[in-house]
Amino acid sequence: MTHPLSGAAAIVGLGITPQGRVYGNTPLGFAVDAVQLALADAGLERTDLDGLLLNPGLAWADMGMGSFQLQQAMGLRDLRLSATMHLGGATACAMIQHAAQAIAASLCTTVACVFSDVPLKPPKPEGERGSSGSAYGFVRGWEAAYGYFGVNAMYALVARRHMHRYGTTQDHLGAVAVAQRRWANLNPAAQMHEQPLTLEDYHRSRWIVEPFHLFDCCLVSNGGLAVVVTGRERAREARKPPVYIRGMAQGHLGGDPSDTLSSGAVLSREPAFRMAGLTLRDVDVVELYDCYTFTVLVTLEDYGFCPKGEGGPFTAEHVTGPGGRLAVNTGGGQLSSFYMWGMTPVSEGVIQVRGEGGRRQAAKHDVALVSGNGGVLSTHSTLILAREPS
Amino acid sequence: MTAAYAKPLPQATREMAPFWEAARRHQLVVQRCRGCGAHRFPARDLCSRCLSREAEWAPVSGRGTVFSFAVMHQVYHPGFAAEVPYAVVVIELEEGARLVSNLVGCPLGAIAIGMPVEAVFEDVTPEVTLPKFRPRARH
């Protein structure tokens, strides 16, 4: 029997603002721009929206009631769904899940799901170079006394355990960076477009925190990204081909990621595919949350594309880049296109299923698997997107 | 006269004050749950295993192994500018708790997961002592 949520809603609008070193806009401004772009893409007006879900990035994470602030800024009236959500990089897929659930339950009809952030400051006039990573260089109280700073180091400690336990190597991590850069070089919208990367370049790039080189770490981007979700009936009238939400699930393991060495995909994959009525073999494109190269290896393992611990050797076979047998992070991902937290993989999933991928378009694009990951393998969400509702 | 200590000093929060007070006496302590006996670190108000709110600070052996390590190349605080690259290590104590720390007397290239270590105490100011770790022979 078909799950009642499977194919009940679809993504009908996608809005991506300019990305990267874009200055002069506010987090709220980027959010408004992204929603307007998504509405235009869908052929809808803002008066069609009756739901608004927001994941505010670092720059406005602490603002109270962010979704209400955005509603007021856009002059949206009579909403029937509103929430500000904080699951880190797992929020994007989770927002779309909540939108689909509310629509399927007839609580609302058309929901904008929005992310925006402005972590990058404009360059100083005297030419002083600010570190793009400084926004993520969190200091955590007493640990600063030992020089332990930032998300990069938190992930590096977990990656080192994976290397120790499973024999993952620097070459394995580098293979992910190289594959995704090759995709980015087919994506004119990617920040790293026309900047080829070889494995030798990867090894020569500066260390950030061992075992991570510069190119193991995702970009940091200013910008906004929004999608519009609506019900199956209404989706048929949309301007663009609907991208149906066929399966969804979340998985939040808890505990110490250094012990599990796993993402929550180990929990979310089975219910998501069961809801979709599909298997891993039906997946044409894979858009995985990639804060680090390491995260891609782990997530490939946890969805079952290879046995646990073999993510490294799997990617080193060069199967995930253009022309490989498994199309992974086809826009270049967050490592090489732009970093809108979980909205980056969502947007590329939509582009691929629609067939709008240009030179990077997968030949077969009926089904896309999209993942989100927040914290240090702390939160996880799965979407299975498809061209057909069932 | 040595130069002023330039790195960040730990703030003695309510939860962590007993750890730093013990460190000044060159003693390593971690929290031990009165409910289930589990050692834990850093300090927390309740035990995530048994949910007991009762805990005591218990002296530990100071012996453990390197659980993981990361070599920092970025300067996030000027106090570390002269030190990069340096290693941040996670030590797993024999008693079970894990601590973020640094190694002394161990070149970066020699650090390995599983390496046996023991606590040492670095008096960085007259008021503050940082527990760190050094390699020890296997017994």
What structural class results from the helix and strand content of chain A? alpha/beta
**Contiguous helical run count of chain B:** 1
Count of domain modules of chain A: 1
Averaging pLDDT over every residue of chain A, what do you get?
A: 95
Find the biggest chain interface. A-B, 31 and 31 residues
Portion of residues within helices of chain A: 25-40%
| Rg over C-alpha atoms of chain A, rounded to the nearest angstrom | 20 Å
* CATH class (first level) name of chain A: Alpha Beta
Radius of gyration of chain B: 16 Å
Query: Class by helix and strand content of chain B?
Result: mainly beta
What does this structure look like?
The complex is a heterodimer of chains A (390) and B (139). Helix content of chain A is 33%, strand content 18%. By secondary structure, chain A is of the alpha/beta class. Chain A has one domain: Peroxisomal Thiolase, Chain A, domain 1. Chain A has a ten-stranded mixed sheet, sandwiched between helices. In chain A, helix 2 links the parallel strand 2 and strand 3 (81-84). Chain A is globular and about 50 Å long. Chain A starts with 8 loop residues before the first strand and ends with a strand. The mean pLDDT of chain A is 95. Chain B is mostly beta strands and 139 residues long. Chain B has one domain (17-135). Chain B contains one helix and eight strands, in the order αββββββββ. Chain B has one helix at 17-24, and strands at 29-33, 39-40, 55-59, 63-72, 86-93, 98-101, 116-123, 129-135. Chain B has a five-stranded antiparallel sheet. Chain B has a three-stranded antiparallel sheet with strand order 2-1-3. The longest helix of chain B has 8 residues, at 17-24. The model of chain B has no long low-confidence stretch (mean pLDDT 95). The interface between A and B is medium-sized, with 31 and 31 residues. Strand 5 of chain A pairs antiparallel with strand 4 of chain B.
